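Note to self: keep these together.
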Amino acid sequence: MIDWEGPLTAAYERATRYLNELPERRVGPRATAGELHDALGGPLPTDPTDPLEVIADLADGVDGGLLPSGSGRFFGFVFGGATPASLAADWLTSTWDQNAGLYAASPAAAVVEDVTARWLVELFGLPGGTSVGFVTGAQMANFTALAAARHEVLRNAGWDVERDGLIGAPPIRVLAGAERHDTIDRALRFLGLGTNCIVPVAVDEQGRMLTDALAEALRDDAAWRGTRGGGVIPTIVCAQVGNVNTGAFDPVRTICDLAHQHQAWVHVDGAFGLWASVSQQLSPLLDGIELADSWATDAHKWLNVPYDSGIVLCAHPEAHRAAMSIRAAYLIQDEAGERDPLDYNPEFSRRARGIPVYAAVRALGRTGIAEIVDRCHAMANRFADALRADGVEVLNEVVLNQVLVRFGDDDAVTRRVVAEVQDEGTCWMSGTTWHGKAAMRISVTNWTTGPDDIDRSAETILKIFRKVS
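Structure:
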């Protein structure tokens, strides 16, 4: 008889111990790479090892190298934690071990995704019938949405990119803000369009796209028209809701109005900012979001589900399916008209990652998700106020969950404060460069973060700043 209970019980005990320790655990790794190699490495095993021993050695070996990003005092990058319901559902997802590519391979996984997709479309206030794909993160969500955009703008120009490829195709121009996220550029590389297709659009001091500059860029198509021989230039406009440094939002309504006048596709990178749509207080920042053609976001950010979990949404399901779907004689597809998940994401075999999203949305509901977003916004402002009151320069308007600060108006001092805060362990945040100057970037995204976490962290940062100064 197979012993499932022993290893799973050991894993449960280790997991709950880690989670219970998070509120007071040092926020940062404790081991060096060399120490981790010593603990985990060694020659390739020749003989089997008792699973209980494997679990114990693994948990002990990695412990010092874990970055406790689920802590309420982790403010580095834009990482969320994991809510109890989403984490438990993720464990069940691993246990059930479903291949979520086809309805035939897992009717349960396919229906859970179908239900969750409808919930998300309603939650974000997007048009009915919007198609949804569950992917690894915003990188692949941007990739998938831009693949659909590539299909549609080339189809409108009389070109079938899925059949004929890009050689000889009309060139596509992509208008994107100068402060766009790098995943846009990377997605365009993956799609074979290259980064030279990007026309950077000027932004304001917070990173918001300037609509006058966009209008001018849309009109200034002479360089592209010479390669087209007249007619509509295949154009994609990439907007951003939630700048990764400042949290700023592009004016989506005006962007959509301008772009659609030129028959351009509008894609919105909303990795974390799209979740502000559930907040009555913050939703005005997303005015016009429903007018776009596609959207990308992460569930492992503000919905706080375990990694990895990204979401792509598309107002044009036909373009979405055309870019992603595949047919093969051995596959069982569409026999009962059910939704096959592989039609909406770039993967074939994949984990049923819609299940934890379902659990999170059901457990929290609209009001619970809004409470997380609103509280994180309030905590970001509390953080900014505490630092500003002690002479720290806050570089951004705290419109969402991002706080961008600089110490002593000095690059070296700022970088040293970041490094020493990370080393001290009370909290963890990352450094960045904003407009050519070093800065500390504070991201408040975790569902457990409260006033005490902010106050303890701000006190530590100020103490280190005074020491460094």
